[in-house]
Amino acid sequence: AGGFDGNFLNSAGLDDLRHALLESAVTSVGPAVKQVLIVDLVKQEI
């Protein structure tokens, strides 16, 4: 599982991804992190 499973390019998928990134940032940096801004996203099929 993870933020990149499934269709993450739709609104709900981006919300899930943003939430997962926020949880990781708060764990790493601490409670000073309040939001995550996704500026650019590229999907690469391998």
Characterise this structure:
- The protein has 46 residues and is mostly helical.
- The chain has one domain (1-46).
- 41% of the residues lie in helices and 0% in strands.
- It is built from 1 helix and no strands.
- It has one helix at residues 11-29.
- The chain is elongated and about 35 Å long.
- The mean pLDDT is 83.
Radius of gyration from CA coordinates: 11 Å
Order of SSEs? H
Structure summary, number of beta strands: 0
Strand content: under 5%
Return the average pLDDT rounded to an integer: 83
Shape: elongated
Summed up, the helix count is 1
Low-confidence stretches: none
Overall domain count? 1
Helix content: 40-55%
Biggest sheet features: none
Strand-pairing-aware structural class: mainly alpha
What is the terminal-to-terminal distance?
18 Å
Concise structural overview:
The protein is mainly alpha-helical and 46 residues long.
What is the topological layout?
Blueprint: H1 11-29
Throw out a few tags for this protein.
single chain, elongated, 46 residues, 41% helix, mainly alpha, 1 helix
